[in-house]
Amino acid sequence: MSEITAEADRLTGMAIVRRGLSLSPAIKDGLGLTLVLAMLSTIGGSVVPILIQVTVDSGLGDGGETRLSDVAWYLAGAALLIVVTGLIAYWMRVRLFVASETGLAQMRVDAFRHVHDLSMLTQNAERRGVLVSRVTSDIDQISQFLQFTGIMLVVSVGQIIVATAIMAYYSWQLTVVVLVTFLPLFISLKWFADRLSRAYDIVRRTVGEMLAVIAEPVVGASVVRAYAIERRTQERVDAGIKGNLDANVKAQRLVAVTFASAGLAGGLANAGVIAFGVILGVRGDLSIGTVIAFAFLVGLLVGPVQMATQVLTDAQNAIASWRRVIELLDTPADVVDPGNTGVSLPGGTLGAHFDTVTFAYPDGPDVLKGIEVTIEPEQRVAIVGETGSGKTTFAKLLTRLMDPTTGSVRLGTPSGEWQDISTVSFEELRKHILMVPQEGFLFDATLRANLLYGKQDATDAELSDVINDLGLADWYATLPRGLDSEVGQRGESLSAGERQLVALVRSALANPDFIVLDEATSAVDPQTELRATRALDRLLEGRTSVTIAHRLSTAENADRVLVFDAGQLVEDGTHAQLVTAGGVYERLHASWIAQASLASHTAVEPA
Ligand SMILES: Nc1ncnc2c1ncn2[C@@H]1O[C@H](COP(=O)(O)OP(=O)(O)OP(=O)(O)O)[C@@H](O)[C@H]1O
């Protein structure tokens, strides 16, 4: 049984980057050349101040002699250099973009597939949102880092090194002046980055909270209106928006401080350069061109320092995101698909055998204990039991949505072989056994597209045959646009009963030999109820079925009733045998009868 692993928690930042790159090898494709281009464009940009110096000095001329033709050449050279540097920067960005997007697209595909391989346990409701955000926003964060911040880091570091080297070549005294001015900022960068990172964490958290308080009343609009809680809802929304605004303002204040500090340091450095430059110039140690070039070189330091805190924060976020995606990819799939190595199931209608099956949810007690039972082919079995007795767990094990903790579940025929379902490929298994939920999930598409989830390549003729066989032709004829009707998000344009019918048609299209059904509990109108009962009867004909029964009639009409109590199979027989056996079933049956008579009594009572 696996939870999202914490293995990646132990990796250092660099190890995460290495692991991340090995999972998306396309990112590294041609990275060497891209880095060389990045360095070339940096050097190109840094050479401009040198050209300014030689242009100014030869323009003003040594000893009063002006060489205008040289100035023209230098200017032409500078223009050419700027154009070439621009082209190199463009080429570098395109290469970087293509490589990182290709690599990350692969990572998205891998992560998405892996989410599907995880068992229903790992993907339980509250984790689903987290899993989706790993595939989407976490990978976006890495992409942002690789395409912008990461290269900015390389370019910025390169720019600082090259600019400092050129400064040192011109004048070590002025270089010391500049570096001393920037030193306090360099030292405090990490402190700023940590504070900014924390501030952004709060921004992200408040974005989540804000979206939740906005989305909830939209989804539950009818409840908000029914109970007239618009004001309270609006107050919660306002508070959510305000929280996000405050967090953003706080984070942006920090950004503004770093920007202003770098600008201030640049201004001070330039003032120092001019002051000391004049002194050195007067002594004849420095030319005017060199002092002007220094001012430009100081400008080359300001940009990287202004961006440094942002770069460090983005780097931290990207590493955290990479860590989360790696954790997801490292989580072992606990229900493993044997794929091509899987065995086939025998032909003919299948039965099932539970061989001393025990099951416990992660860190929980055994919820199924030593279940030993054989279900014959074509048998109609009803499962009954109190809530929490283990009925759904039994059904999930039977369809391999989860694997038993101990023991095995097999499918086969009494005369043929029995195969452990963990050795059968998912594809083969789904051809034979299918779990029909109370209501199928509906996608925002046409009714036809939704039905075809049962069999993607079914023709229209096949589809209408199945609908006719289930006796549902009159139902879809009542829909305004027949099979082309749009069902809306999650099927909201259909009634609960119609959504049940969709689940039945899908399963009939899939045509398995064995159906495991969670009987619908939601009340529907009598006409749809009748249709659903008739369709279900036809669907189960000639098939083996196990139904989690919530209705009296289902248990009464079944060939066999299995009664669960606190994770144990306590009774096994027909309705007639069990209803007077003095056990759990007799008690349950009595309470069903009582409920049914209460319901009919209330129905005829005047209001
Ligand atoms: N995802 C889960 N994680 C942990 N425990 C679970 C999980 N799902 C079910 N259980 C526990 O396992 C036990 C059996 O649950 P199960 O859903 O199989 O019962 P059930 O008979 O189908 O109940 P119901 O009729 O209410 O659906 C219960 O105690 C339940 O709390």
TrEMBL record:
User: What GO molecular function terms would the record report?
Assistant: ATP binding
Primary site of residence? membrane
**CDD domains associated with the record:** ABC_6TM_exporters (cd07346)
Q: Which residues cross the membrane?
A: 31-52, 72-92, 151-170, 176-193, 254-280, 286-305
ABC transporter domain residues: 352-591
- Pfam families for the chain: ABC_membrane, ABC_tran
Localization, UniProt: Cell membrane
Could you name the domain of life of the organism this protein comes from?
Answer: Bacteria
Asked if Nucleotidyltransferase is a keyword of the record, the answer is no
Provide the topology term for how it sits in the membrane: Multi-pass membrane protein
ABC transmembrane type-1 domain segment(s): 33-317
| Alphabetical keyword list | ATP-binding, Membrane, Nucleotide-binding, Transmembrane, Transmembrane helix
- Identify this protein by name: ABC transport system ATP-binding protein
Native source species: Aeromicrobium panaciterrae
